[in-house]
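thread: overnight batch results

M.L. [08:02]
morning all. the overnight job finished for the chain we discussed friday. pasting input first so we're all looking at the same thing
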Amino acid sequence: MQPLIDHARSFRKQSAERPEEFARLAEGQSPQVLFITCSDSRVVPALITGARPGELFELRTAGNIVPPYASEQPTSEAATIEYAVEVLGVDDIVVCGHSHCGAVGALVRDEDLTAVPAVRDWLTHATPKPIGAVEDPTVTDAVQGHILAQLLRLRSYPCVERRLTSGQLRLHGWFYEIHTGSVLAHDAQSDVFAEL
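M.L. [08:03]
and the structure it wrote out:
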């Protein structure tokens, strides 16, 4: 924890040297992209994209899961998506999964999650169960299929469907390889993930 505290202290000093940049951020936000990704500490959206403060609106969930839309029981994920689309007016939504994903790997390997019931119950939102090779530690095929399932689920959100229909919103599926740093994007025409 101490290195994080030390950095926070030095960050404050560095930010004092750029007061106009931080004053601009205090006036509000207008990100262009909602970036939905896993809570995994190895996935750092700003590092991957080079985004500056205010450029990405982030939603991080275990396994980058987009839960089913249910207006009678709103979730924080649904609220974040709706706010990004309706209030902030983002132009793009990226669902970014990653190699070596513990959540998707647990589903593929059918791991016993009784010791973590909240995790077990959350992962039921990943349906259909991701399919991939049990012995593949990267769970590449399973994660890529899972990304596409989450994009499909996003389309069921009324605000997303409305903006997609009007051509005001674009959806993107990305796969981040932790072990190489590569980012692959899903190409709808060929139905494959290829390097950006």
